[in-house]
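Problem 12. The chain below contains 160 residues. Write out its predicted structure in token notation.
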Amino acid sequence: MPVDPTVPGLAAGAPAQPASPPAPAYRLEEQVGHLMRRAHQRHTAIFQDGLGDCDLTPTQFAALAKIKELGKVTQNLLGRHTAMDPATIQGVVQRLQARGLIHRKLDPADRRVTLLSLTDPGAELAERAIARAREVTRATLEPLDAAERAQLIELLRKLS
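Solution.
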């Protein structure tokens, strides 16, 4: 079959390929990353409002809450439980220790391992912050009904 010189790759007399439909317009407001960032900004503002006087960052709060839950934990395991890389958890632990909220102690079962635990002031702050964090969660999810809240939590678990 002869080639039609006016259309690259199209044989003369061959039916023209239908043009593919144009891609839908890219709307930033419909993109998952944009929406997640906006939801995160909203939650962060609610967090700061609710826990501002505790003087904790979200990562510091997560570390305190997890240490409270576990009692004693290695820095490595704490990082895994709070989804923080080694450099981040190291900085968080150093700042919490400098504030007298946690202390390090050698594990009596394995002297090569250092365990982290809350000091008395750390336990008091964790207790107060956790009570406020419950309100932060409630305020963050307030626009959703109970079924939507459960669905959102499940979907976020799936994504993460």
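Discussion. The mean pLDDT is 91. Students who got a different answer should revisit the alignment rule from Section 12.3.
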